[in-house]
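$ ./design --mode recover --in tokens.txt
reading tokens...
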């Protein structure tokens, strides 16, 4: 093989490597962005139980089921959360969007006909938001690790003062 042919082969190989590196660099930011979404590890059905504390101070056990639908990019999340205790139940739906750490969206609780807006922050494994409406305001925190999740809802001044739920990914 001549030195010119060796040079052309090496040059062609270098261009191929640069092309592959460029293609990979275009893919990595998209993968990194999806990995940074607080919604990515929520997809699917979750079930669990916890304790609900009423404004009166009385406590009851509560059972919950959640279904999370996440888009492919990890930026949009729809939630359906249904919980029931001996004397109280709620059916919460929500649509959320994540962008650069900010979480925004809307919520609706059909059992008591209330709803409003959601604002807050999200990072991988953790979402902290404030749900505001004309009648009810609440702080919600969702922490997820692997197939375990804890949900905390605090709504001082309402009939439902505090909810603490532990859930696991359903089957």
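writing sequence...
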């Amino acid at each position: 093989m001549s030195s010119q042919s060796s040079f052309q082969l090496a040059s062609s190989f270098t261009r191929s490597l640069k092309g592959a590196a460029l293609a990979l660099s275009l893919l990595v930011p998209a993968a990194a962005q999806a990995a940074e979404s607080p919604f990515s590890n929520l997809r699917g059905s979750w079930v669990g139980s916890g304790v609900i504390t009423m404004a009166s101070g009385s406590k009851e056990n509560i059972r919950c089921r959640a279904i999370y639908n996440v888009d492919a990019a990890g930026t949009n999340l729809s939630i359906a959360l249904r919980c029931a205790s001996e004397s109280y139940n709620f059916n919460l739906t929500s649509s959320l969007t994540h962008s650069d750490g900010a979480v925004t969206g809307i919520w609706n609780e059909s059992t008591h006909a209330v709803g409003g807006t959601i604002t807050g922050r999200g990072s991988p494994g953790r979402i902290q938001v404030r749900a505001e409406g004309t009648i009810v305001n609440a702080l919600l925190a969702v922490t997820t690790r692997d197939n375990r999740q804890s949900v905390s809802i605090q709504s001082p001044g309402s009939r439902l003062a505090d909810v603490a739920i532990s859930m696991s990914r359903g089957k």
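exit 0
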